[in-house]
Amino acid sequence: MEDLKEKLLSSFIAFESTLNGQAKSPIHKVRTKAIEVFEEKGFPTKRNEEWKYTNLKPILKHDYKLLSHPESEIEFKDVKRYFLHDTDTYKIVFVDGVFSSWMSRTTHDGYDICTFASAIEKYTHIVNKYFNKAASQEDSLTALNTAFAREGAFINVPDNTIVEKPIEVVFFSTNSDTEMMTMPRNLVVVGKNSQAQIIERHQSLHGNNVLTNVVTEIFAEESSHVSYYKVQNDEYTASLIDNTYVDQKEKSNCTVDTFSLGGKFTRNNLNFNLTGEHCECHLDGITIIEDDQLVDHHTRIDHKVPNCQSNELYKGIYDDKAKGVFNGMVMVHPDAQKTNAFQQNNNILLTDTASIDTKPQLEIYADDVKCSHGCTVGQLDDDALFYMRSRGIAEKEAKAMLMYAFSNDALKNVRIASLRSKLNLVFAKKLGVDLDFGL
To answer: Which of 323, 353, 418, 438 shows its CA 20 to 30 Å from the CA of 50?
Structure first.
């Protein structure tokens, strides 16, 4: 861990040398402060309460390459399956941390869908207003990303505007002889009375170790609607640390759905800050993993004002020696009267060696609220399985149907029909049976 830390600190000096005139810009002052935070705190360890169930050491021992360029060209036909190819979408695509213009479809017609790097130059006033305003100033991994923030997606939707097509943000790592670490930075601003739907995916195209430390800031202005979908179905050698920060204003509605289906190591830190009355947020997650994969969901919802609602539902299915972690915090501040908060984490362990550490939490400092939380950990229902077997359904198919039914309600907020269909097919494959889950 210390070797990688020192390598990162040295790489920041090299990174600064590539900035030319931008080294004196306000955004780089933010970067400089952030690298100081990382230098002081380093990588979190299991001594940190928020990381007590998850050990970073195994994924930090590799000799990652940091500042990169595309290692090889890729053709769309080879990666077509990672997109909603049957749906017309905007696309922001990166290869080995570098924007791929020929595979992307961006726009500035009515709204801005482009790269964070270009926004730093062309939309400085927006970047200065929002960049690093929702993200944690103290989290060392967020600070590390902030220090190297240069490339990623920039989505800016003006007031009273509906983005008519979904937006796909895809990060590829290509065939390479090196182990790679990337730090994408996404900034999403959706104005008053506006709407946007965004899909994010990180995908390795090789068997080498890849570590992605990504930060996304989402600003949902008054009466806006934002749907953000994270599809995590990467190669076994891929590790992902995902930090997402959502700031909601009055009457806004924001959904973040997380589908964790592949990758060696996945840590999702999802933070909602409800700062305007009559906000509504939805956090849904489905985890289906096997072998010795690990998925850790850490969520936090801060209810700071009255009359807001939050709904959180995470489902997990764990096979072989897979391990899950769920730590969900709902904080109801003293002024947040009339809060309505629901939180639930349900899990199925298919073997005696699979495990889940689950810790749903409520901290309530207001007295006129409706709040509930809970968790379940168990195995498939033997009575339900017997009933289905008695109706002539084979055991393998019966188990798959029960598992699909168990997880399906966490798909209820997916508004893109083609994405729902694609996820259904992935679920069927993960469950090991060919079932027709058509919608």
So the answer is: 353
Report yes or no: 182 and 210 within 8 Å, Cβ to Cβ.
Answer: yes
**Which tokens in the block code for residue 425?**
């097919």
Taking alpha carbons only, the member of 109, 136, 104, 117 closest to residue 272 is 136
Estimate the crossing angle of helix 140-147 against helix 26-41, to 10 degrees: 140
Decide: 402 and 380 in contact? Cβ < 8 Å: yes
Distance CA 63, CA 184 (A): 19
Concatenated DSSP letters of 58-77: HHHSS-EE-S----S---HH
As a whole number of angstroms, the distance between CA 397 and CA 429 comes to 12
Q: Yes or no: say if 141 and 185 are a contact pair by the CB < 8 Å rule.
A: no
List, in sequence order, the alpha helices (H) in 51-137: 57-60, 76-79, 116-122, 124-130
Cα angle: 101, vertex 84, 93; to 5 degrees: 20
Give the integer Cα–Cα distance in Å for 180 and 176: 9
Domain coordinates of the chain in residue numbers?
A: 389-439
CA distances from 205 to 185, 425, 428 (A): 21, 20, 22
Give the pLDDT of the chain (439 residues) as one tens digit per residue. 788 999 999 999 988 888 876 767 889 999 999 999 999 999 999 999 999 999 999 999 998 988 666 656 788 888 999 999 889 999 999 999 899 999 999 999 999 999 999 999 999 999 999 999 999 999 999 999 999 999 999 999 999 999 999 999 999 998 677 889 999 999 999 999 999 999 999 999 988 899 999 999 999 999 999 999 999 999 999 999 999 999 999 999 999 999 999 999 999 999 999 999 999 999 999 999 999 999 999 999 999 999 999 999 999 999 999 999 999 999 999 999 999 999 999 999 999 999 999 999 999 999 999 999 999 998 887 788 887 888 888 777 787 778 878 877 778 889 999 999 899 888 878 877 665 544 3
